[in-house]
Amino acid sequence: MAAPGPPSACIGRVQRFERLKTRMARLHTLSLAALALGLVTAAALTPATAAPDQSAAVDPFIGTGGEGHTFPGAVAPFGMVQLSPDTDTTCTIRDCYGHAAGYRHDDPTIQGFSLTHFSGAGHSDLGDFLMMPASGDTVSLEPGDAKVPGSGYRSRFSHANEQAVPGYYAVTLDDAKVRAEMTAGTRVGVHRYTFRPGDAAHLVFDLRTSLYNYPGKMLWSSIRLHPDGTVTGTRETRGWAPDRKLFFAMRFSAPLKDHAFVDTEKDVTYKGFQGPGRGSDDLPERLGRALVARFDFGRLDRPLEAKVAISSVDEAGAIGNLDAEPGDFDAIRTGTTAAWARELGAVEIDAPAPMKRMLSTALYHTLIAPSVAGDADGRYRGPDNAVHKAEGFTFRSTFSLWDTFRAEQPLMTLIQPDRVNNEIVRSLVASQQVSPYGILPVWQFQGRETWTMIGYHAVPVIADAYLKGIRGFDADAALDAMVKSATYAPYGGLGEYMKRGYVPIDREPEAASKTVEYAYDDWTIARMAAAMGRKDVAAQFGKRAGNWRNSFDVKTGFLRARKADGSFRTPFDPTAINYGSDYTEGNAWQYSWFVPHDQAGLFRLMKGDKAVVAKLDQMFEYDNSKIDYSHAEDIAGLIGQYIHGNEPSHHVAYLYSYAGQPWRTQERLKQIVDSQYKATPEGLSGNDDLGQMSAWLVFTGLGFYPVAPGSLEYVIGRPFVNRAVLNLPNGRRFTIVTDGLSDANPYIGGVTLNGKPLDRGYLRHQEIVAGGELRFRMQATPNRNWATARSARPFSTSTARKGG
């Protein structure tokens, strides 16, 4: 929803009518090619109910180019199904990085539409159960070569005939001569294909394809046609997550005329092309490692719909999920459109048009994961690969915790607190309780652990929620799970860390990063334990929270890796980035600032505020012209040695405020926003990482950011909105108003909270959830007096205010 307009009801009606005309005109334009091909009827072009303004401002194509790794397809808020086009699933291990979400905006062909995708991950997997329409008398069961039109079932397309809005995606397939539409519910995806009049309609259903394909990934698959026309099956893969099982159930809106289930690994007569009536191929069931199906429907007088549900439990679970969401394409789309309107309405945004588009899309991207991973009956598959049942909550997975603990999950505590306690935290604890190792998820999807990235960052997610007053989960069980994760010696050098107070680089890779990330996680355990009255745990982990000092080299002023004998590893180059070495996806420049819970303590080791500001400036202004980072996939969005395209840098611009110069934070934030975000497909400088890049922009756009989740504070930066409203779940509204917002006024002149001057550089969580108004006055020159006093600076452990 947009900010309220003029009070005149007449003016409001005119504005709504103009917006509806705009939407109808766009739908008409996108469908011209389809009409020219005779693919749709006039009735089929009737628009769905106009989405609210906030939904209309979302552009799912942002991030689909460059290295954003987002997908444009249909998904419900936090939905299990992400039904989206795949432009290439034939990539090798070396070149799959750019296709991590299945779709790249600069690819010329679509291979098909599959049911599962990550939004902005730095690793690829999923792309399950790919479907593609085909027409005519001969149907290819191979995707073919993108450079050779007609060599397979893939098809060329044009962005001019492509549309994406929350919960809906459509494109005209030029070679197949079919208009393809997608929508999704919570656990179902619905395809709708409009064929040309007179063309025979077919669907290719490929169980072989997968994102990040490599030899041996496909372990087993099956497909079965039931007497009532329902099709079910499964596939088991060995990819990013080992031994992952996924099941499907599918029904069509038209009766089957014929079908073929082909095992391309064993069928000696298989030549890659299959026509209707292949006799021995129309078996009711096939099992194998390389299955592809063809479904024939003859000539149709209306669009063909295929409704598919998935389950990680079994085929019965997939059928149950299919039955749990009744209705055809339009019914599912209407429900999902309403769901997006409701969820996006949590933040009303009024900003200059490109910024509103970027912020609205960023909010949309934050609401895709953690995704539902449990069935409608409550069953789910856990990290032990066994089936369990959730009681009183919906099991969720897709936890990219190294990324999302920073801003994505703190944003959820403001706008989705019920999901945080009843689903996210309970899912994390439920996973720990059945984990073969007894620890919380690290990077989990569909209930399966990948062991990707470092730290035990489910810990700050739980602690931040508890400290913010979010309940509904067993706090004692949660704290026990946190402690078990932080004391599991075999994981990531934790045994050495507990013994020495740091992770030694000659015993464990990425040791410098692990030391400081463990120390922060330990601090959040101590905070939660203290709030619960668990003094023993609070004391133990409060001491461990200071371990970051053990890897900081005062002589060089950088965080460095130490060896088991206590010496720092040499040679030392603070700009060096090598995977598996001292740092995780970064170098000393980024990681030397990672002490979110005690920046004041760090600054003292760096010789004080003046030296800190000089070092921050040196970081942002570093000359990289002689440095080659081409070997490092996740190093993108460089501003000197600040790397916005990856998470370790995300809090750094806010650190000027800790050094008493908040106007420098304001300068850097404008520099970052202007250079790292755009309202285009290439609009994200790095992987969105399941919403973290987007959550950074949402918070920064509102004017504040959670530098240290668990501190109950947000550091004030500067706003990028004219007005925004947080419609809080408790019924209150927190309004941000910016007077004088423009490129000519990049600095804060003054701030008021509920009409009273605010002279400190932070907000408290309770001040936001209580509702009220935060008002910024912007000006052309820095205000060097606002929020500079030591008492006005954000939280640090070593300078904590009483009760802080």
UniProtKB/TrEMBL annotation:
Report domain Glycosyl hydrolase family positions.
318-779
Signal peptide (residue range)? 1-50
**Keywords associated with the record:** Signal
What are its GO cellular component terms?
cytosol
Q: What residue stretches are annotated with the Glycosyl hydrolase family 92 N-terminal domain?
A: 58-311
Instruction: Tell me the Gene Ontology biological-process terms attached to this UniProt entry.
Output: carbohydrate metabolic process; glycoprotein catabolic process
Organism domain of life: Bacteria
Q: One Pfam family, short name please?
A: Glyco_hydro_92
List the Gene Ontology MF annotations in alphabetical order.
Answer: carbohydrate binding; peptide-N4-(N-acetyl-beta-glucosaminyl)asparagine amidase activity
Supply the InterPro entries for this chain: 6-hairpin_glycosidase_sf, GH-type_carb-bd, GH92_a_mannosidase_put, GH92_N, Glyco_hydro_92, PNGase
Write down what this protein is called: Alpha-1,2-mannosidase, putative
Q: Which organism is it from?
A: Sphingomonas gellani
